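Fill in residues.
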């Protein structure tokens, strides 16, 4: 039986899905199954998946119900001890599963492993920057300020964690086990999902230094999407009243504000200057303390939004290119440094274990 179930979400993924499946089949870790969840995709995505003719690939079709429902369907059909999610337009580098399975098996307390991610464009070209979430001590305070794993294609989670947070939902007269809340189809329900892990269980969420996910930035329909995602995210925040009323009372404004700031940064990336300025102002009006809590991210978002709105496009592009190059260089150095430190820590731990073993033999 496969140890890892890779759940690939497919909806209008025709230009990318072949490369996505290839990136899974190219993994150095081979004990996996691939569950392609066809969320009512109207294009040739599923037909392309069938052409692989690999016995490890199963295709499961459902009517179009959104990302949370597709993930729930995948989990219910999965056989593996570990579950990995991959969006139909993202890619993995070959060592990803091997390194994250090793990471999960290094500690019985880690419930979810994630890696850093590299941004790519619609053509698969590296954009030069990375998603750089912190790797340890993922707590509620940090989760409420950002997505601690970066994106939906970076994580690998134990089935036991999913069993600990599942709930029952009635649909068409039948009761189904659910893990993601399907009412949050626009925002994806990831904030609610991670909150329930941290609040309702004792499992730890921890990352590895390497950037092993290639996260595709796709601007299609993004302007309208930003506002829909804001509404959906607000509903996620309100849901915390039902299982963490004290948290909701204390952090409701902050959670909403940080998500609005995230949308403002997305608007900058998609060249929507006016929307970006309006969103960052809304974020500050909702929770002005973010200026002191996260000075760099907040001020850089504010400055970028105004530069995008006020400067000629060519001048803004030149400034952005220089800034992105500098940030990318700093991020790459940090990835190398963190990877080296993790390797050295692992070597020290192995040496201690060997010495302890020798001492036992000597006695």
């Amino acid at each position: 039986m496969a140890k890892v179930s890779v759940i690939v979400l497919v909806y209008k993924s025709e230009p990318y899905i072949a490369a996505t499946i290839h990136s899974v089949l190219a993994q150095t870790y081979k004990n996996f199954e691939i569950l392609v969840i066809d969320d009512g995709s109207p294009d040739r995505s599923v037909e392309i998946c069938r052409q692989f003719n690999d016995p490890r690939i199963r295709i499961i079709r459902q009517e179009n119900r959104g990302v949370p429902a597709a993930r729930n369907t995948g989990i219910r059909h999965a056989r593996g001890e570990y579950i990995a999610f991959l969006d139909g337009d993202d890619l993995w580098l070959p060592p990803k599963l091997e390194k994250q399975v090793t990471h999960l098996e290094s500690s019985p307390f880690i419930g979810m492993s994630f890696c850093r991610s590299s941004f790519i464009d619609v053509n698969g070209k590296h954009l030069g920057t990375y998603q750089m979430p912190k790797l340890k001590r993922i707590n509620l305070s940090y989760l409420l300020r950002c997505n601690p794993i970066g994106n939906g294609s970076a994580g690998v989670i134990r089935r036991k964690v999913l069993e600990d947070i599942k709930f029952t939902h009635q649909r068409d007269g039948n009761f189904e086990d659910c893990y993601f809340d399907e009412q949050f189809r626009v925002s994806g329900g990831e904030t609610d999902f991670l909150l329930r892990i941290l609040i309702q269980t004792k499992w730890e969420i921890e990352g590895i230094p390497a950037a092993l996910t290639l996260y595709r930035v796709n601007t299609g329909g993004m302007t309208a999407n930003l506002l829909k995602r804001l509404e959906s995210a607000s509903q996620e925040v309100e849901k915390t009243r039902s299982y963490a009323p004290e948290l909701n009372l204390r952090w409701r404004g902050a959670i909403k504000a940080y998500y609005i700031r995230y949308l403002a940064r997305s608007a900058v990336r998609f060249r929507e200057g006016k929307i970006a300025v309006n969103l960052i102002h809304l974020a500050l009006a909702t929770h002005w303390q973010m200026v002191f809590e996260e000075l760099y991210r907040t001020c850089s978002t504010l400055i970028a939004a105004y530069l995008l709105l006020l400067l000629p496009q060519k001048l803004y592009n030149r400034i952005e290119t220089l800034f992105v190059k500098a940030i990318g260089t700093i991020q790459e150095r940090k990835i190398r440094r963190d990877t080296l430190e993790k390797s050295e820590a692992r070597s020290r731990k192995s040496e201690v274990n060997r010495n302890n073993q020798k001492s036992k033999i000597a006695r």
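The first helix runs from residue 17 to 25.
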